[in-house]
Amino acid sequence: MEVASTETANLNTAVDDGRAEEGGRRPQHLDRLSFSPVQLPHLADYLPNLQTITNPLENSQFYHPSDEFYLSSSDVILRQTVLDLSGNFHSPSTSPHLSYPRAGPRKLIFFDPSHVRAAIVTCGGLCPGMNTVIRELVVGLWELYGVREIYGVKAGYRGFYSGEPVRLNPKLVHNWHKMGGTVLETSRGGFDLDKIVNGIQDRGFNQVYIIGGDGTMRGAVTIFNEICHRKLNVAVAGIPKTVDNDIGIIDKSFGFQTAVEMAQQPINAAHVEAESAVNGIGLVKLMGRSTGHIALHATLSSRDVDCCLIPENEFYLEGKGGLFEFLDARLKENGHAVLVVAEGAGQDMIPRTDAQKEERDESGNPVFLDVGGWLKSELKKWWARDHPDELFTVKYIDPTYMIRAVPANATDNLYCTLLAHSAIHGVMAGYTGFVCGPINGNYAYIPVKEVALAKNEVNTRDHKWAWVRSVTNQPDFGRS
Ligand SMILES: Nc1ncnc2c1ncn2[C@@H]1O[C@H](COP(=O)(O)OP(=O)(O)O)[C@@H](O)[C@H]1O
Ligand SMILES: O=P(O)(O)OC[C@H]1O[C@](O)(COP(=O)(O)O)[C@@H](O)[C@@H]1O
Ligand SMILES: [Mg+2]
């Protein structure tokens, strides 16, 4: 099945899929422009006889939809808004023509709300806002579309085949947005494709909302493929959750800002401890399995950080241009220094046994050693060797779960609400195998296959990393 064509096509033909050209709003003035609209998978791709009905919002006593209210497949979000007009577009993803369907309600929908049985599941690690997304899925399905059968699948993917789903309604979830974690519970591992899809079929679910990170989205792709293979009338929507912000294409993930905000407290404490000691170093380890976004953003917003170490920028300790030389100078100059290190940084330098090298969590992610504890001990050894007669203190703070096991802040709560509603509108319109998220500030639908492949790493050659270096004046560890 053709799901994500990124070939350049004439907009006029590309959107003429006979599905959602409601309102006769074809943008004639764009006919001569060439765009590459990404085609979203749709239930009608393999179930051509599905009936449509008018969106119930049309008859809602609280809504008075205008023409602009409903979106059609000609409403798109451009992937790139920052362009190099010299025309050097290095890859299809940097083409100025690449666009994604805009998220929002469609006038015609492919589900009769009275026949919907929706399932919601949360997978992977915690992230602020998971409960808000669940709440808004429940309330949105119930209030906007009149769906009454909504279920929470317990404890991640394994919940589809073990244990009973819980029935959800707006009363039950009304204050969930104020709570950290996920009331539905989550887990790693337990991905058994056949059992999961059988579970979806056996329980009669026809809408599946999957909240999770990069691993979860890889799982969602295979679930979606199997559902297409079995030609089931089941729509699958992913809602990207990652406190590390390591999922690509979307602007940022929900909960990330809350985590960055929470990281300020340990950084402040590390600064106070360092400043109050003679040759004091405050060391803070922040989450970031393979990407340093939390460490980077926390550093940029704090201004008390002297050096930020992330997985994307290898560092070294000894010799010219190394961390020790830099800290030596900072301590001489200021008497103290604050170091922020992402958990995935420096892993190659930490000695480990063969068994430790092979260690994986239930989902198959490598298990890291504690870079903060290792750095603290290396720093102490260095000082004792080079400055045996001078006082020195390292205060190591590891706030790990404290930055993610909290409710979402106001901005993230709003973001979660818009994500949930976007997902509902897309599924009701018959789209499937998609993820919703903001691209350049506007909410879009993206094929889950693309999202599962798109990693969001810190680009140490772009301006954001240059800001870090200009704020900290830290070494580049050999990067030219
Ligand atoms: N490649 C994959 N294919 C299928 N399922 C996967 C894959 N990677 C991870 N999963 C499943 O997705 C769920 C969450 O993955 P995990 O990596 O723990 O968290 P996250 O989704 O937050 O990155 C787990 O149940 C795991 O088994
Ligand atoms: O101890 P846990 O629950 O496995 O979580 C730790 C991991 O979770 C993360 O927050 C990211 O998890 P996800 O991939 O699930 O989003 C990492 O930063 C961290 O390594
Ligand atoms: Mg992950």
From TrEMBL:
Keyword Phosphoprotein included in the entry's annotation: no
Compartments it resides in: Cytoplasm
Residue numbers marked as site, Important for substrate specificity: G215
Parts of the chain that traverse the membrane: none
Gene Ontology terms: biological process: fructose 6-phosphate metabolic process
Activity control note: Allosterically activated by AMP.
Binding site for Mg(2+): D214
Entry binding sites for substrate: T242, V243, D244, M287, G288, R289, E343, Y401, M402, I403, R404
Record keywords: Allosteric enzyme, ATP-binding, Cytoplasm, Glycolysis, Kinase, Magnesium, Metal-binding, Nucleotide-binding, Transferase
GO terms assigned for molecular function: 6-phosphofructokinase activity; ATP binding; metal ion binding
Domain Phosphofructokinase positions: 117-425
EC category name: transferase
Single GO cellular component term: cytoplasm
Predominant location: cytoplasm
Enzyme Commission designation: 2.7.1.11
Known catalytic reactions: beta-D-fructose 6-phosphate + ATP = beta-D-fructose 1,6-bisphosphate + ADP + H(+)
Disordered: annotated segments: 1-31
Extent of Basic and acidic residues compositional bias: 16-31
This protein's pathway: Carbohydrate degradation; glycolysis; D-glyceraldehyde 3-phosphate and glycerone phosphate from D-glucose: step 3/4
Cofactors required: Mg(2+)
InterPro entries tied to this protein: ATP_PFK, PFKA, Phosphofructokinase_dom, PKF_sf, PyroP-dep_PFK_TP0108
Residue positions of the active site: D244 (proton acceptor)
Sites where the protein binds ATP: G125, R188, G189, G213, D214, G215, T216
Family the UniProt entry places it in: Belongs to the phosphofructokinase type A (PFKA) family. PPi-dependent PFK group II subfamily. Atypical ATP-dependent clade 'X' sub-subfamily.
Subunit structure: Homotetramer.
Protein name: ATP-dependent 6-phosphofructokinase
UniProt source species: Nyssa sinensis
